[in-house]
Specification:
Blueprint lengths: L14 H10 L1 E5 L2 E7 L8 E4 L8 H18 L7 E7 L8 H15 L17
Parallel strand pairs: 3-4
Antiparallel strand pairs: 1-2, 2-4
Helix pairs in contact: 2-3
Length: 131
């Protein structure tokens, strides 16, 4: 059976990895998220991801839903990210992430700030309007 979830190799697991990213990486804020990133010292061919959520964010049902949405948003965009990058995300509030698209937009904004993705092209450019 085909698995569509986030593979285990694309997730951060060990405390050592978390400490390395949180202490040695750089921090970005925006779009209701805080993101820490660091280069993985081991040569790997994929980006790795983790979500950290505090209890003050809300009840367990809400925290788990927020984690699932953020993981799915990462899964959809992980092929666009550079290989060997470790990313940890912490949401400020769960109200911003009502669906996967909202989570994906928030992550994409931070990816662009970090330089992982090229700057977005203005959708309302004059060349796009033919009328």
């Amino acid at each position: 059976m085909l698995q569509n979830g986030l593979p285990r190799v694309c997730r951060l697991h060990t405390q050592k990895d978390f400490e390395r990213v949180l202490k040695g990486g750089f921090k970005l804020q925006g779009s209701g998220l805080v993101m820490w990133t660091a280069k993985n010292p081991n040569p790997v061919e994929y980006a790795r991801f983790a979500v950290v959520i505090y209890k003050k964010l809300g009840p367990a049902v809400l925290r788990n839903r927020t984690k699932r949405l953020l993981r799915e948003a990462f899964r959809r965009s992980r092929t666009q990210l550079p290989a060997g990058v470790d990313i940890i995300v912490r949401p400020h509030s769960s109200e911003k992430f009502i669906n996967v698209q909202a989570a994906q937009e928030a992550l994409t904004t931070l990816y662009r700030k970090a330089g992982f993705l090229p700057p977005s092209v203005a959708e309302n450019s004059p060349e796009g309007n033919t009328k």
